[in-house]
């Protein structure tokens, strides 16, 4: 059965990988940039969004990353951080998302004089405002934050402690993001040791710009409960795409432990982690039983929504049942207490009308 736009919008969605600084509304970015005198490529919302999308689809990573210099420039005050977070929650809710984990790097938002603690409190205020405003608009959504440390910088131990200090109030987990190739997880050994000792949920960007060994390091040294992207884990599977497969230690571990892979279809193509949506490794990984989930990564920068990602997958053969399985995997992979994950999973089951 072909899924219509309305069908896809109505499906309950769970997003585990959505960058706050990659998902601003174009009009908001233009307004806030004007207030501080920051020059943008365009001051027309539609044209600005098109410029970012064109850059993302150019195959040039430098052009893809240009957008973040603009978005982070306007995210240096408490008021602006709160607004961006509030609008992100509202936009996700209107797109059928019932649970979202928004991630951001506090260290990228202190050039205006905010402390790291003030940054996380400002974002949390926006998340809470967004949830309340969405409910008033008729949408039920729950949202939380994940704190990123940057792979190529040296503040990960500090951000890990920040995450622990704000556990249960302003964040639910920790991540390392930024350039993967050349900046291994091992550089952040101290942070991961601290997080392990305190049983803090960790997800790590891996298997996007680097190969399966990077995923292995994330799962081993980093004790990651989820993998951001993770699509290149297929490089640890001999005969991938064929009938006779031999899983390596890394792939077998991820499969056995049902480690959620936070796949972001469009972004993965844009960053060359996948050659196309049709040939994305996530399809075969799903067929093999891996816990594949669907995510946006950067809604503004990549020009996507959860619904548009679902639509792109539907065009290459994904069915309602496939979306249900991926969404249920995301629900069980959420950084929530077990009983709350069970409640979220029940909402997914009810929303899809699945009789288990």
UniProtKB/TrEMBL annotation:
<protein>
    <recommendedName>
        <fullName>adenosine deaminase</fullName>
        <ecNumber>3.5.4.4</ecNumber>
    </recommendedName>
</protein>
<dbReference type="InterPro" id="IPR006330">
    <property type="entry name" value="Ado/ade_deaminase"/>
</dbReference>
<keyword id="KW-0862">Zinc</keyword>
<feature type="domain" description="Adenosine deaminase">
    <location>
        <begin position="12"/>
        <end position="350"/>
    </location>
</feature>
<dbReference type="InterPro" id="IPR001365">
    <property type="entry name" value="A_deaminase_dom"/>
</dbReference>
<dbReference type="InterPro" id="IPR032466">
    <property type="entry name" value="Metal_Hydrolase"/>
</dbReference>
<dbReference type="GO" id="GO:0016787">
    <property type="term" value="F:hydrolase activity"/>
</dbReference>
<comment type="similarity">
    <text>Belongs to the metallo-dependent hydrolases superfamily. Adenosine and AMP deaminases family.</text>
</comment>
<dbReference type="Pfam" id="PF00962">
    <property type="entry name" value="A_deaminase"/>
</dbReference>
<keyword id="KW-0479">Metal-binding</keyword>
<keyword id="KW-0378">Hydrolase</keyword>
């Amino acid at each position: 059965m072909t899924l219509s736009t309305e069908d896809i919008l109505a499906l309950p969605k769970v997003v585990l990988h959505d960058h706050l600084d990659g998902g601003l509304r174009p009009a908001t970015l233009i307004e806030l940039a004007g207030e501080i005198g920051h020059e943008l490529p365009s001051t027309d919302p539609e044209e600005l969004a098109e410029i970012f999308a064109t850059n993302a689809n150019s195959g040039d990573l430098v052009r893809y990353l240009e957008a973040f210099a603009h978005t982070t420039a306007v995210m240096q005050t408490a008021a602006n951080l709160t607004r961006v977070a509030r609008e992100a929650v509202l936009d996700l809710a209107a797109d059928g998302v019932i649970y979202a984990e928004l991630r951001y790097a506090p260290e990228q938002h202190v050039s205006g004089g905010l402390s790291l603690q003030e940054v996380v409190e400002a974002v949390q205020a926006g998340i809470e405002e967004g949830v309340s405003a969405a409910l008033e608009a008729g949408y039920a959504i729950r949202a939380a934050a994940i704190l990123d440390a940057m792979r190529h910088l040296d503040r990960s131990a500090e951000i890990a402690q920040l995450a622990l200090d704000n556990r249960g109030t302003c964040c639910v987990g920790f991540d390392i993001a930024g350039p993967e190739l050349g900046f291994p997880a091992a550089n952040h050994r101290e942070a991961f040791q601290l997080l392990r000792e305190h049983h803090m949920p960790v997800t790590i960007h891996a298997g996007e710009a680097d190969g399966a060994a990077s995923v292995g390091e994330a799962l081993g040294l980093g004790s990651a409960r989820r993998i951001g992207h993770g699509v290149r884990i297929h490089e640890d599977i001999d005969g991938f795409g064929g009938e006779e497969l031999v899983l390596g230690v890394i792939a077998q571990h991820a499969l056995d432990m049902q480690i959620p892979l936070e796949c972001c279809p469009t972004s993965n193509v844009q960053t060359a982690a996948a050659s196309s949506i049709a040939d994305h490794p996530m399809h075969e990984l799903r067929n093999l039983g891996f816990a594949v989930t669907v995510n946006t990564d950067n809604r503004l920068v990549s020009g996507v929504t959860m619904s548009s990602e679902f639509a792109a997958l539907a065009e290459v053969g994904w069915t309602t049942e496939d979306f249900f399985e991926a969404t249920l995997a995301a629900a069980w992979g959420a950084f929530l207490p077990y009983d709350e994950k069970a409640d979220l999973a029940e909402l997914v089951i009810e929303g899809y009308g699945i009789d288990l």
